[in-house]
Amino acid sequence: MRKTWARPLRSAGYLLGGLPVAVATVVALPLLVLPSRARAWADWQRRRAGLLLGGPVLTRPAPPPGGPRAWWRRMRTDPDARRDLLWLPTQVATGLPFGLAALLCLGNILTGVWAMTLWWALPAQAVPKLLGDVPVTGWAVALTAAPLQIAVLTALAWWGGPPLARAQARICLAVLSPSAAQRLTRRVELLTRTRAEALDAHAAELRRIERDLHDGVQARLVAAAVRLGVARESLGGAQRDVAELVREAHEEIEEAMTELRTVVRTAYPPILADRGLGGALAALAAGCGVPAWAHIGDLGEIPAAVEAVAYFVVAEALTNTAKHGRATRAEVRVQRTGTGLSVQVTDDGIGDADETLGTGISGIRRRVLALDGSVLVTSPPGGPTTIAVEVPCGS
To answer: CB under 8 Å to 66, separation ≥6 — which residues?
Structure first.
């Protein structure tokens, strides 16, 4: 029985609640046009509509404080702010007629109940009247017209109230909800932020693996290699076979350590943790096969994933310069550009770099595009060659 009456009662409460809200909107309109109050008022209506329709309604951040100039700027640039203001007249246009319809229906049901049961106790000048201006002056009218009015209006409220309330709630959410393009934009922003967080977590895990390999596995391999070296030197000619086996084991361990160092540097360069991005790039330039200069700006705080990509870009570009470019000098420029990081490597070599020949440019492009960055390679025949990379640093 409760479930049977729950939906009509919720609908009646929503419609009747919208009437004073609409009146308050008209009365307090000068105050509600302020961005923060319009947002709070609109969000309250969105929550009411969401509760009626049974769907979740995402909360929105409160607008930043500011004066008239900031308010006008938000009206021009923030679609949510414009929707909040648009909802004010829409609330009045829907809340008043829908709420009055629910109030008249409920009021006439109560009037019918009152006329049917208490008409006889009222003085003659206070005779109750039903719809159609029908006076209740005797039991015949009280027991026929009044119950008919109650039944008709109850059926109308039962069947017509929920659709009317849902229509008003849907209008509210339609006006206050972002468009499909804006929802897509926000979804992309969310995915970009979560991907950046995942990349940061991945970089932190790589740093942990690097520390474990460096402090654990690699240290043990070094100790084993030292012991094998000592054993190899101490074995005499009579034990030549054993010495040969020790020599082979010693060499294999040294090769394994070399491969392990390569894996560690590929996973996450330890120098980034030791010196930071600026120091690591300066070390790359100092160790380049041709004279190279590093110009590092004020980088600020950079996500670990972006640091690793920037280091890889410079390392690959300088390797190409030394091995294939026939250059006599190279320059590395790294700086912050708003919410991004700009990396540019230029050399005075022969140019004509071809990405399809395995020069490392394709690897640079893959890593940069994984962070929604951009890569521009300028390498005309005769040079110079410039690799310019932009990587977003924001979440």
So the answer is: 73, 74
314 and 200 within one domain: no
Residue-wise pLDDT tens digits, 304-325:
778 888 988 998 889 888 888 7
**Cα–Cα distance for residue pair 102/11, rounded to 1 Å:** 9
Residues 348 and 366 occupy one common structural domain: yes
- Those residues whose C-beta lies under 8 Å from the C-beta of residue 101, and which sit 6 or more positions away, are 15, 164
Closest CA to 210 of 281, 273, 302, 276: 273
Whether the Cβ atoms of residue 367 and residue 328 lie closer than 8 Å to each other:
no
Question: Residues 82, 173: one domain?
Answer: yes
- The count of structural domains within the chain is 3
pTM for the full predicted model: 0.47
Q: Containing domain of residue 193, as a range?
A: 183-267
Euclidean distance between the first and the last CA atom of the chain, given in angstroms as a whole number: 52
- Tell me the helices (H) and strands (E) count for the chain, helix number first: 13, 7
* Number of other CB atoms surrounding residue 277 within 10 Å: 23
Shared domain for 243 and 280, answered yes or no, is no
Structure-block tokens of residue 192: 């970009």
Higher-pLDDT residue of 239 and 302 is: 302
Task: Tell me, yes or no, whether 133 and 194 share the same domain.
Answer: no
What are the residues facing 375 on neighbouring strands?
A: 389
Residues 64 and 103 in one domain: yes
